[in-house]
What does this fold into?
Amino acid sequence: MTLPPTEIAADVAAAYAQHFGRPPEVTTFAPGRVNLLGEHTDYNGGYVLPMPLEGLGVAIAIGHGPAPGAIEAYSDTFHEAERRNIEQGREGRWSDYVLGCLKAVATSEIRETGLRIALITTLPMGAGLSSSAALEVATLRAATTLFGKETSPVDIAVAARAVENDFVGMPCGIMDQFASAVGKPGNALFLNTRTLEYAPAPLPESHRFLILHSGVSHQLTQDGYANRVAECTAACEALGVEMLSDLGSGDLDRLDELPELLARRTRHVLTDNQRVLDGLAALKAGDPAAFGRLMTESHASQRDDYAITVPETDALVAAALEAGALGARQTGGGFGGAVVALVAEAEAEDLSATLLADFPGVRRLALV
Ligand code: GLA
It folds into this structure.
């Protein structure tokens, strides 16, 4: 479902009013993102190139609550209510994301007043489009506004990542939270995750990114993602570097120093990092064909070296290329989720229709 953020915000205000019997005090929206190049480079201090998705995200409505310390959370999308207390820890529920964000910015206030929060999400879960980052960013924006706290978009991104790492327990990098909090829909965002320097990147004119859900949902808190983080840490130790981003594509000969598995993981990180730089140059030069080739190379690297693709995303990428896409790749944390393909605008609808007809389990999420 793609709706303008203002409409989703109006819907969440109505849902809050209906559920809690009074209007909210603040509403916010935060987008999900599609990543165009640079996968699993962020926790290695590397480069990424995500793009926020205008109509796909999380809207939050909040207000003070009647019971000090109590948090009443309601998801209008899933028609589920959860009650938490500001003193609690993680419990493996969706409200953990909300609770972690509220603890990060407003523990003392909520001890005094309590809080009510309603949310609507238009992002599919487990699609690799950052539904959890959007929830964190929207919650932090809402809570900092409600309690009058000064923050910048970068502060929000940093705080959101800390919640995910330290409270939810997912060892992610900062790409998703940064794209959601700082990025501007309609532009890609080039980010150096080590220095947090960033710049908007132009999108190809007369071409579009088609985003399709493969039908396989991932669950990043399962072991696969954390294993990759651990493998990168092991590679750093073996190579005597602090982060893999200390190395560049000129250091690929050092892979011989590593056991075969760690060499493949490291090669993915170094080459995908370089592909972000090359992709940025291609966007600036107005060369969509070059950008598309990099996307396809990135998919092969995710498949062959990083081992984070699944047969369904491999098949969808191959079919998109066969149908005329300039490039295609799995996007996000991996192990399923969405595929993004770069297509000529004039061919986008036909190409989309062909893929949807050939893959009954596939859903179209966006054409941007
Ligand atoms: C998930 C994480 C990000 C990033 C991507 C892979 O989305 O949250 O930090 O590591 O996977 O690029």
Summary: The pocket of alpha-D-galactopyranose is lined by residues 35, 39-40, 42-43, 130, 172-173, 175-176, 332-333 (CB under 6 Å). Residues 52 and 179 are 6 Å apart (CA to CA).
